[in-house]
Amino acid sequence: MELNLKNNKPIIFSGVQPSGVLHLGNYLGALTQWVEMQNQSNCIFCVVDYHAITVKQEPKELSRRILDVVKAYLASGINPEKVVIFQQSDITAHTELAWILNCIARVADLNKMTQFKEKACLPDRQGGSKESVSVGLFDYPVLMAADILLYNTDSVPVGDDQVQHVELTRTLAQRFNREYGQVFKIPEVAVRKQGARIMGLDDPTKKMSKSASSPANYIALTDAPEIAAKKIMRAVTDSSSKIKYDLKKKPAISNLMTIYSLLSGVSVKKLEKDYQGKGYGDFKKDLAETVKSFLAEH
Ligand code: AMP
Ligand code: TRP
User: Fold this and answer.
1) Radius of gyration of the chain (CA)
2) Which residues are catalytic?
3) What pLDDT was estimated at residue 125?
4) Whole-model pTM?
5) Structure confidence by residue, pLDDT tens digits, 15-29
6) Which residues line ligand 1 (CB under 6 A)?
């Protein structure tokens, strides 16, 4: 599909890395927003393969995953007749603009970014430090800024972990415009109130992640419904057994309630009421059924 940018609809840009299986966090934090936006906006959804190679990739596996990401977009309800879907490395302007923005970005800007520090300490990089990450991983937010600024983007729908990168994009665009005149549109970030940070099923203090060491951390969009149901039944819970939403005191059940609420459309308040006097077992059984039917339908 070709974009007709002559209309007055806002321009939306976002992307997912083909670096692992897509999970419920990607879906609830990012993809559901995309699906909602595709009717009222000019949407551009990218598969950001250059971002994926900031950590080591197996070339054949990477090619397969690029297609898997596109399949996940379609299965989530993204309509290729309404939006543009493309592979980042097919458009050379992304890396060209990234270089120009590199000359505007400062080492101090990038040193403030938290993602590369987190990735430096992943389990498969034992003993890793922020000095040992690739220059590409350190520079990753500048390439993301190029992705966004290249298309005069108005809004960037992402999960909570990407907000810092969109803020950097705004900083770089404003700095460039101050120094060289009005070139870039300043984009806004779009983050869901609920679901912007889905936590791991095995550890509710860490976000659900593709790069988690155990598949018990996430529900992959490609999980067989029965497997996903088992993961829900085995998900970590908090100490007291009341079904109550309290992010500080009960992070595990609060995370499961968020997932349940977003998949079923039932508010968290209503869930609290419905499960009064019931325990985690009952709640998990129903959530497992909800997740099972979600996966069967998508
Ligand atoms: P990534 O898998 O890092 O390429 O992320 C793709 C999109 O999913 C981005 O918009 C992320 O912010 C979002 N996302 C990733 N993990 C989560 C999560 N655990 N909860 C909510 N959104 C997420
Ligand atoms: N950094 C994003 C992530 O890991 C992926 C991404 C790359 C992106 N370029 C983007 C997201 C531009 C939104 C807009 O999730």
Assistant:
1) 20
2) 119, 207, 210
3) 52
4) 0.94
5) 999 998 899 999 999
6) 16-17, 25-26, 29-30, 158-159, 161-162, 196-198, 207-208, 210
